[in-house]
């Protein structure tokens, strides 16, 4: 799998960044992994999203809105980097089809926010 250079990050607010979802690159949701209830929850930087984590599996974080609705996506390890997933599909660059991989889970959650702003969920 090709990956974006780690310094290639989404612009604030997603300006000029066009994202898409790749049906061929998928990840099992935290619910599908049978992780049970999260062991920790915190607010994303802008407080519009909540992030759930599990001590038993630190390689995945579920992201949801604070209104109690279902998860809007998740961040999961892809090799040594973090991928951003919506409906199980990896977030990619709509122009060249390359995946957006992040150096940490926080960057992956930021990318998820940009993808949500582009109505990918």
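Q: What amino acid sequence fits the structure above?
A:
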């Amino acid at each position: 799998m090709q990956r974006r250079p780690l310094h290639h990050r989404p612009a604030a607010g997603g300006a000029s960044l066009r994202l898409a979802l790749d049906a061929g690159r998928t990840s099992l949701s935290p619910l599908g992994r049978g992780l049970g209830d999260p062991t920790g929850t915190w607010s994303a930087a802008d407080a519009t999203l909540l992030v759930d984590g599990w001590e038993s599996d630190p390689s995945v974080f579920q992201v949801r809105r604070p209104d109690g609705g279902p998860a809007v996506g998740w961040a999961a390890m892809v090799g040594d980097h973090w991928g951003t997933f919506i409906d199980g599909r990896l977030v990619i660059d709509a122009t060249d089809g390359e995946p957006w991989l992040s150096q940490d889970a926080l960057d992956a959650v930021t990318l998820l926010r940009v993808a949500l702003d582009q109505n990918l969920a």
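Q: And what stands out in the fold?
A: The first helix runs from residue 105 to 117.
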